[in-house]
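in:
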């Protein structure tokens, strides 16, 4: 208990240093597509607005599926082609001259690079969401170091992510702070009760973008193996992304169309998660697993690969960490699906825990 409260106080001190009271803030995003980064941004913006900050949001590219923002965004370009044409001609026009106390480049090196062009800002901050090697594929370390050199602060979403940047860029540890995404547990629980999913039998749910690093292909293989062994359950996958058609084809090829469902993207996934008997993360890589944190707030048993991000969130045995391969996922899911007493034990541990670090400021 005292250790967690100490961590919460440390988190609050860092938060107040990055966002001093009374200062105006400008956030930069590449786009507002339905990703965990966008959701975490909106959660942060709502908290800052509620705390009385003046906040603006500047977005590089307008997308077809942009999520509704808690504040009206200012778009720089209507398409990627328009943006790259302007960048190629070295013509970047920022549509205002208001002085902001701080700019926050929230979603990667492109928005950080754009932040270096802003003249009317006193302090510049870059947010780091994923391990260095995942976030900077194709970028030379020297170039990345030079871009981040212009930032007054770097903020990592977890201590694991922070360490990957320290190792890769050899920068001073004091230059990188850690701030977990803040989640409103009351809103999540209220939204989880807005719909009721009535379904007999066991249900495993996995939430995330349909991309390679989320490991849905191997999760489907594990599901197929468990069903073939007589462990009857359904696998629901919530999310959208570039692998949608490939995953549909895989479901067909594996012959699991009756038990594995692609449910698409949901603005409110919490009723689906609330129906789950177990939440599964088969990811190869995570910075700070937002869906897992939401599952913890809903007191759901979790099976997750033992990777950066996952193990930081599930420390103190808050969920089951398994080896980062199909066999590990298979053994973990088999145990969790077969043993109701094990699921209840994890539920009780989550229910009886003190506020999680990512619930601070409720």
């Amino acid at each position: 208990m005292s250790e967690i409260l100490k961590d919460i106080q440390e988190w609050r001190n860092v938060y107040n240093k990055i966002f001093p009271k009374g200062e105006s803030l400008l956030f930069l995003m590449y786009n507002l597509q339905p990703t965990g980064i966008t959701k975490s941004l909106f959660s942060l913006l709502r908290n800052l607005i509620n705390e009385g900050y003046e906040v603006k949001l500047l977005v590089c590219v307008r997308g077809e599926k942009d999520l509704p923002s808690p504040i009206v965004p200012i778009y720089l370009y209507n398409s990627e082609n328009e943006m790259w044409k302007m960048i190629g001609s070295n013509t970047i026009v920022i549509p205002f001259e208001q002085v902001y106390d701080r700019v926050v480049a929230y979603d990667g090196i492109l928005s950080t690079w754009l932040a270096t062009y802003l003249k009317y800002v006193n302090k510049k901050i870059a947010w780091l969401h994923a391990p260095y090697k995942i976030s900077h594929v194709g970028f030379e370390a020297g170039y990345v170091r030079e871009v981040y050199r212009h930032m007054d602060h770097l903020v990592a979403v977890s201590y694991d992510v922070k360490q990957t940047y320290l190792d890769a860029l050899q920068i001073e540890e004091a230059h990188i702070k850690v701030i977990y995404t803040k989640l409103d547990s009351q809103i999540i629980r209220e939204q989880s009760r807005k719909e009721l999913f009535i379904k007999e039998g066991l249900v495993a749910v996995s939430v995330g973008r349909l991309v390679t690093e989320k490991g849905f292909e191997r999760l489907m293989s594990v599901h197929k193996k468990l069903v073939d062994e007589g462990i009857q359950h359904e696998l629901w996958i919530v999310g959208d992304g570039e692998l949608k058609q490939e995953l549909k084809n895989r479901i067909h090829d594996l012959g699991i169309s009756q038990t594995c469902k692609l449910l698409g993207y949901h603005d409110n996934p919490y009723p689906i998660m609330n129906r789950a008997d177990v939440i599964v993360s088969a990811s190869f890589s995570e910075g700070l697993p937002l869906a897992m944190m939401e599952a913890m707030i809903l007191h759901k048993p979790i099976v997750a690969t033992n990777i950066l991000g996952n193990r930081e969130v599930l420390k103190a045995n808050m969920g089951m960490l398994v080896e980062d391969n199909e066999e590990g996922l298979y053994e973990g899911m088999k145990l969790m699906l077969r043993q109701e007493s094990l699921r209840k034990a994890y539920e009780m541990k989550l229910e009886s825990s003190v506020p999680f670090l990512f619930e601070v400021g409720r």
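note: The chain has 15 helices and 13 strands.
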